[in-house]
Design brief:
Layout lengths: L2 H6 L2 H9 L5 H19 L4 E2 L1 H10 L11 E5 L26 H8 L3 E6 L11 E2 L3 E2 L15 H8 L5 E6 L5 H7 L2 E4 L19 E6 L2 H11 L17 H7 L5 E4 L10 H12 L7 E4 L7 H17 L3 H4 L5 H11 L3 H22 L4 E5 L15 E2 L2 E2 L8 H8 L4 E8 L5 E7 L5 H15 L15
Length: 470
């Protein structure tokens, strides 16, 4: 098949070709290398390539009986890959080449995935705009003057432009969902513990989660099936799921009780984005369900999230702060210092309030099966702008607060997915966030796939990067 023909196919179609031996992993790697050479210069999504390593692995054995069947895959530059430059987006690690891979990378490779590139990320994944001093800015393919969001911006852009069929991302405050929304792809943050990964310094209190990214929901479910499952090295990892997420997506089940909220009562939202998402939510009724305007009570969200986030940064990067103060970006320094300054009372208060928020959302989900919201509160913004400082008259108090609508579900450990739902008048993508009760990924991907097939928006991908109008 011609390179462009392969690039245009879904991950599901590519896997079928691999399983039937109609195409080889080496042919796919050739197609991807040609596509990257053609388009990545305009968007800077995949700054680290490892095609030599990938081809050695592709020649090593027959992958056709494995779940990914030799599928090439992009790994976000926050996960280590053995023998491949892994910078975490930081000048501190600009020459770092790890000897071993993250346990999640090991899992993906054992399932027949072939790593050929690392995707760009902001320093240590901090901030929802993908730029760093090692590799520079990643640009939005719908308008290269704009941000791809973050921190999984490189993965999202590689998918939207046909440089990947599947990619990993990670999500603490919306880092999977924001770039999926900005780039018109799919990003799924699973329930806490659904996907095992290196647990870091706070193994029993980790809010960041790895997750799958793809051009459509069914493809994301393929990768979720591979990523999900127990690993003893991650003490919070859940048992292997009882149901295949890919099979759940195929069934396209839509539950009867769905809620919609334009803001969750926690954040201002751009009016055009809110209107696009509300119109999209109303279309769920075409699938035979009822949509009501309501949301859980997230009172106390900001303190809960900011304290837990600061605790994480203080624990992981506090020991490195003084040695790297001149290298770390200002937002990292602020977050680490905030973490180091936390009092025991502040941490206890945040833990208690987090439990109360969770209890209120459990009660909410006893009456509703899913809740729909905008995935982000604004459309893509200028790439040089470090973060969203305000919406309307509201000025955000810090660099991450504009992501409140996403991290509300982080705090309760619930699964949430961003899927394309429309475009602004200027042609910029808008994502709809769909969240489900904890550990209900199967019902989430099933309903999301049904809705996606109603809209058919992923059919237009991949695209060539588009420069701004002169």
């Amino acid at each position: 098949m011609m390179t462009q023909d392969l690039i245009n196919l879904s991950a599901h179609a590519i896997r079928t070709l691999l399983q039937d031996r109609q195409v080889s992993p080496l042919e796919l790697l050739d197609a991807l290398e040609a596509r990257i050479a053609k388009v990545d210069g305009a968007v800077n999504a995949l700054p680290t390539l490892c095609f030599e390593r990938a081809r050695i692995r592709a020649r090593d054995k027959d992958f056709s009986d494995l779940p990914l069947a030799g599928m090439p895959i992009v790994i976000k530059d926050l996960l280590t890959v053995s023998g491949v430059r892994t910078t975490f987006g930081s000048m501190t690690y600009r020459n770092h080449i790890p000897e071993s891979s993250d346990l999640l990378v090991e899992r993906i490779e054992a399932a027949g995935g072939i790593v050929y590139a690392k995707s760009n990320t902001p320093e240590f994944g901090a901030g929802a705009n993908t730029f760093n001093d090692v590799f520079g800015f990643t640009r939005n393919p719908w308008n290269t003057a704009l941000s791809a969001a973050g921190s999984s911006g490189g993965s999202a852009v590689s998918l939207a432009t046909g440089m990947a069929w599947l990619a990993t991302g990670s999500d603490l405050g919306g880092s999977l969902r924001n770039p999926a929304s900005f780039c018109a792809v799919v990003g799924l943050r699973p329930s806490q513990g659904r996907i095992a990964a290196d647990p870091g310094e706070i193994a029993f209190n980790r809010m960041s989660m790895e997750g799958p990214m793809a051009r459509n929901v069914a493809d994301a479910a393929i990768l979720l099936d591979v990523m999900a499952g127990y690993d003893s090295r991650d003490p919070m990892s859940l048992d292997d799921p009882a149901e295949s997420f890919e099979r759940a997506a195929e069934q396209q089940r839509v539950p009867p009780r769905i809620a919609f909220s334009p803001d969750l009562g926690v954040t201002p939202v751009d009016s055009e984005v809110a209107q696009i998402c509300e119109r999209a939510a109303e279309r769920f009724e075409e699938l035979g369900t009822q949509v009501e305007n309501t949301h859980p009570d997230f009172s106390g969200l900001q303190d809960v999230f900011q304290v837990h986030r600061a605790l994480s940064y203080g624990t992981s990067l506090g020991p490195e702060l003084e040695a790297n103060r001149e290298v770390f970006k200002p937002e990292i320094i602020w977050n680490v210092e905030k973490g180091l300054a936390l009092t025991g009372q502040e941490i206890m208060d945040a833990m208690v309030m987090r439990s109360k928020i969770y209890q209120r959302t459990v009660e909410f989900f006893s009456n509703y099966d899913l809740i729909l919201t905008p995935a982000t509160v604004v459309p893509p913004y200028p790439v040089e702008q470090r973060f969203v400082e305000r919406v309307g008259d509201h000025e955000f108090s810090n660099y991450i607060e504009w992501c409140s609508i996403a991290y509300a579900f982080t705090v309760i450990g619930a699964p949430a997915i961003s899927i394309p739902c429309g475009f602004t008048q200027s042609g910029l993508p808008v994502g709809l966030q769909i969240a489900a009760p904890v550990r209900q990924e199967a019902s989430l991907v099933s309903a999301a796939c049904a809705f996606e097939n109603l809209l058919r928006l992923p059919d237009q991908l991949p695209i060539d990067p588009r420069a701004p109008d002169p």
